[in-house]
Design brief:
Layout: E1 9-12, E2 20-27, H1 34-37, H2 42-47, E3 51-56, H3 73-86, E4 90-99, H4 101-112, E5 117-123, E6 136-137, E7 140-141, H5 143-160, H6 165-184, H7 201-211, E8 236-242, H8 246-263, E9 269-276, E10 283-284, E11 287-288, H9 304-317, E12 326-330, E13 335-339, E14 348-354, E15 360-361, E16 368-374, H10 401-404, E17 410-413, E18 421-435, E19 441-449, E20 455-464, E21 488-501, E22 506-512, E23 538-544, E24 551-557
Parallel strand pairs: 2-3, 2-4, 4-5, 8-9, 9-12
Antiparallel strand pairs: 1-3, 6-7, 10-11, 12-13, 14-15, 14-24, 16-23, 17-22, 18-21, 18-23, 18-24, 19-20, 19-22
Length: about 550
């Protein structure tokens, strides 16, 4: 690197006479594992005629330096691409691939200025913004995934790198203290974020970021929220309907597509499967979407490695374009759909109104209200969805029966459907709510209720009342308290889906005040910057009917291709 730091890099060179275009992946999870157990088959990348580089980022595993998450990848990414492009074995053209952190390093290199970087393939990426599923969602800290990443994915290697045996043992004991706090639930109880945990350094770093105001510059570091103009190369995005970074992945796609239409630049490509952050098998949470749902099959169109090879051949070697540009898995129907763009242009809006008798219908049916108690001492447990957590909390379309029986979870549902209903695109909920507190969290889940009574989550979201006026991507806007006992409109973003509700099934919407440990347990009190209030129970009243149009808003298609 430009400061003399050396990063361990495994270089895989094709047989024959070069030079070759190069493919690079950079991440903090031991790059040597990618030789035999990565998201792509690197042996096939080499056999396809690519010079392949696998690199540990600064401060991780075989690389020198001190790990400074995300921030370091702008300069280091640009330096790594320049080094690789200058090798005599390389043509000077470089592509990058990788999921999660390995997607952020791709965008970081572009932000750092890497003219040799000609194409990227980021998968399950949080690079858009720290506020929409990475550190926060709807203004609520993502405490569960922050703990999962810092404590389990990052801390162990950092501990082994400590030179002093005494300090290494002290940090190992702090790791054990965090482990106990996670096991007992103490790490994510109401108010835990503002305690002073005896935790290892990287966990403290993560929790410190969650304490930052939504508009903090720390949340923009390494993100492209203000720099979409810097993404001027072909982009192939891969996502999962149950991935914690689905919102970011799709927002990047939308912005790149809009720019392509405006400027004539490269059209982004998109592939989304019925996957979570770490499961692309097509079998998740007790649901088998069929063999074609796997990343190893993709419905017979070639596996994920083959798709990448075609993509890079087109981008780096002027090969045939892989068209159409969008391929998404339609759950329920359990088949892949090819599109020119997502969502397809022929979608229409369907509004389903919360009504009397727990009904969900295309027209308001009666008026009334339902009440629930938000008790920070007894939060609703997280149950599936687009999560990245620790055991026993799994991602995916988990049956909600266990939590739907709670008194603080209220539901509305349609009559059994007479014909298929295909949702393809954005999902949001509008909830008219009054509370006795000065703040409130509203968690909404879209579920598919089967004829056997099981209810499987399709999409979910959360909104904190005090953050209703804060832009969920940029963090711009002021937090303000909720007026007690005054009806407020909460707009909850459930991101997007592609799902067919089959005949005999019901569309169901669940509303709850919490989902722990995924999201920080709200304390029902507004806390200005620097102030910490004791948690208190609050009564939430959800109102519905023609004068209080609480509703679910879907994008639907008549007959998907």
């Amino acid at each position: 690197m430009r400061d003399g730091t050396r990063l361990r890099t495994v270089l895989l060179v094709p047989y024959g006479t070069g030079p070759w275009p190069a493919l690079l992946t950079r991440h903090p999870y031991d790059a040597t594992r990618d030789e035999h157990d990565g998201t792509l088959d690197v042996g096939r990348l080499v056999a396809a005629g690519y010079l392949v580089a696998l690199q540990d980022v600064r401060g991780r595993f075989g690389s020198e330096g001190v790990f400074d998450p995300c921030v370091q990848e702008v300069a280091d990414g640009a330096d790594a691409v320049a080094w690789l492009a200058a090798l005599p074995e390389c043509t000077g053209a470089v592509g990058m691939w990788g999921a999660s952190y390995a997607s952020e390093t791709q965008f970081g290199a572009l932000l750092g200025g890497a003219p040799a970087l000609r194409a990227i393939a980021p998968a399950m990426t949080p690079a858009m913004s720290a506020l929409d599923g990475f550190r926060f969602r709807g203004g609520v800290p993502e405490i569960g995934s922050t703990l999962a990443w810092t404590h389990y994915a990052i801390a162990p290697d950092l501990i082994t790198r400590i030179g002093s045996a005494r300090e290494r043992e002290a940090e190992r004991k702090r790791w054990e203290a965090t482990e106990r706090a996670i096991a007992t639930g103490e790490a994510f109880r109401a108010g835990a974020l503002h305690a002073s945990p005896d935790a290892e350094a990287i966990v403290v770093w993560g929790l410190d970021r969650l304490r930052e105001p939504l508009g903090s510059a720390h949340h923009r570091a390494g993100k492209i929220v203000d720099r979409i103009d810097a993404i001027d190369v072909p982009v192939f995005l891969v996502g999962g309907w149950f991935d914690v970074f689905l919102g970011s992945t799709l927002e990047i796609y939308r912005r790149l597509l809009r720019r392509a239409k405006d400027t004539g630049g490269p059209v982004p490509h998109l592939l989304v499967g019925p996957w979570s952050h770490d499961n692309t098998s097509g079998r998740i949470a007790g649901v088998d979407f069929g063999p074609g749902a796997s990343a190893d099959d993709l419905g017979g169109s070639g596996d994920l490695t083959a798709r990448h090879v075609r993509w890079f051949d087109a981008a780096l070697r002027a090969g045939a374009a892989d068209t159409p540009p969008v391929r998404v898995f339609l759950m329920g129907s359990n088949r892949w759909i090819e599109l020119d763009e997502f969502p397809p242009r022929d979608t229409r809006t369907l509004e389903l109104y919360l009504g009397a008798g727990e009904s969900l219908a295309a027209e308001p049916a009666g008026s009334g209200e339902r009440r629930l108690t938000s008790d920070p001492a007894s939060p609703v447990p997280t149950c599936g969805g687009a999560v990245l957590l620790f055991a026993p909390f799994e991602a995916g379309p988990v049956d909600q029966a266990a939590i739907e029986s709670r008194q603080d979870v209220v539901a509305w549902r349609t009559v059994p459907l007479a014909e298929e209903l295909t949702v393809m695109g954005a999902v949001r909920a509008v909830v008219h709510l009054a509370t006795t507190g000065t703040d409130a969290d509203v968690v909404v889940r879209l579920c598919d209720e089967h004829p056997d009574g099981s209810s499987r989550v399709v999409a979910d979201g959360v909104q904190r009342g005090s953050a209703r006026c804060v832009d969920p991507i940029t963090g711009l806007g002021d937090r303000r308290p909720v007026e007690p006992d005054q009806e407020q409109e909460f707009v909850v973003d459930l991101w997007s889906t592609a799902h067919t509700f089959l005949p005999g099934h019901r569309v169901r919407v669940d509303i709850a005040p919490s989902s722990s440990p995924r999201w920080e347990v709200g304390r029902n009190v507004f806390e200005p910057a620097g102030m910490i209030e004791a948690p208190t129970a609050a009564e939430h009243t959800i109102r519905y009917g023609a004068a209080h149009t609480s509703r679910l808003v879907l994008r639907v298609v008549a007959a998907p291709r």
